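Researcher: Next entry in the queue.
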Amino acid sequence: PPDAPVATREPESDPRLAGLTPRQIDVYRAAARGLPNKLIARELGIAPSTVKSHLSAVFSALGVANRTEAAYQASREGLRLF
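Model: Structure for this entry, 82 residues:
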């Protein structure tokens, strides 16, 4: 049923994300927490342009266009991002 709770699972268990690096998963987790790219970059010690690149890889792997769609999909599928 649509109202049934979805079991949570780690993003690494999603076959679509299997080709992503651990750093890309870190960026995905930070974006899912609602952090802007600048803060993600600061938190992870990487350049904002690298954050954008990692997010593009995540969006491509998930087949979504932006972080809103990625967060919605993660929530719907029970991915534990934070």
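Model: The chain has a mean pLDDT of 85.
Researcher: Noted, moving on.
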